[in-house]
Amino acid sequence: MPDTPPKDQPTIRTIAMPADTNPAGDIFGGWLMSQMDLAAGSVAALTARGRSATIAVEGMKFHRPVKVGDEVSLFAEVQHVGRTSMRIHVEAWRRQRESDLTEKVTEAIFTFVALDENGAARPVWSAGV
């Protein structure tokens, strides 16, 4: 049974480039994790209506490699909002440039804390979450 990505629009879509590879030609896991953090951070900023910072990443699982030229789509969704923190589930999906086939390559839960202008934790101000 083929993988089916989320039906929503991706939070971020990017192309894996040669500068992001390890000696075997696969994309570095750290590059992929940074893209996931960007997607989660975008959702966190919108949810908190302001600045936020990553404080934890849980359950990072690499299912399949990403290759140079793959289109990488990142889907981020709020799972839980606490008083000052947000848990955001992120999935990364790859599509070869010349194919319609998509595969989930990794996923994780990113925890963010809403920050005030001094960098201290503040309550999350959210509309509709």
Automatic annotation (TrEMBL):
Pfam families: 4HBT. GO terms for biological process: acyl-CoA metabolic process; fatty acid catabolic process. Keywords: Hydrolase. The keyword Hydrolase applies. One of its GO terms (molecular function) is long-chain fatty acyl-CoA hydrolase activity. PANTHER family: ACYL COENZYME A THIOESTER HYDROLASE, ACYL-COA THIOESTER HYDROLASE YCIA. This is Acyl-CoA thioester hydrolase. The lineage of its organism: Bacteria, Pseudomonadati, Pseudomonadota, Alphaproteobacteria, Rhodobacterales.
